[in-house]
């Protein structure tokens, strides 16, 4: 699930409580009088409605037969010859992996290739290999390699909702103190049981506005 954004406007605060009942009780109370540096501030408490988020499942399958090869040198030879050289090079198991090759897909424009081995599990020997020697035209090139993966999404859905443990405090007046001091005074007020509050898990106050992200 992606994180859900919430735009905190100027002189607003978000408080997330450990207990859901505390947040719901404060919302029902509606208005509160907070002591900010010996000045009374009459604030309103509202529920937090989150913006749209995305939830999905990502399934990744690592192939045991295919590897991806990158930075294949652009040599002045036909594509068929290059495929043959790639097949011969990765067939040489004594160089650290490989085996009998079933198919070679080569794209000159991107300088990439996909090597498919005949034996399942042959690609596993490249799991910890970041580069592989490739011999052509009397030179040895070190080509980046990686195991081929297949990824697909399932259960993709959009969602939005109301944070049950978080409240939005609005109407906080401008104060001469810095944000941290004002935030501390707000937290002290709302964590007192005599004010209907409880233990605060997280708090964020902004004198100028900011964007806050909620996790599912």
Automatic annotation (TrEMBL):
Keywords noted in UniProt: Cytoplasm, Immunity, Innate immunity, Nucleus, Secreted
Pfam families (alphabetical): NID (PF07292)
InterPro entries: Nmi/IFP35_dom (IPR009909), Nucleotide-bd_a/b_plait_sf (IPR012677)
Cell location: Cytoplasm; Nucleus; Secreted
Superkingdom in the source lineage: Eukaryota
Domain NID intervals: 13-102, 113-201
Biological process according to GO: innate immune response; regulation of innate immune response
Family to which the UniProt record says this protein belongs: Belongs to the NMI family.
Record-given protein name: N-myc-interactor
Organism the protein comes from: Chaetura pelagica
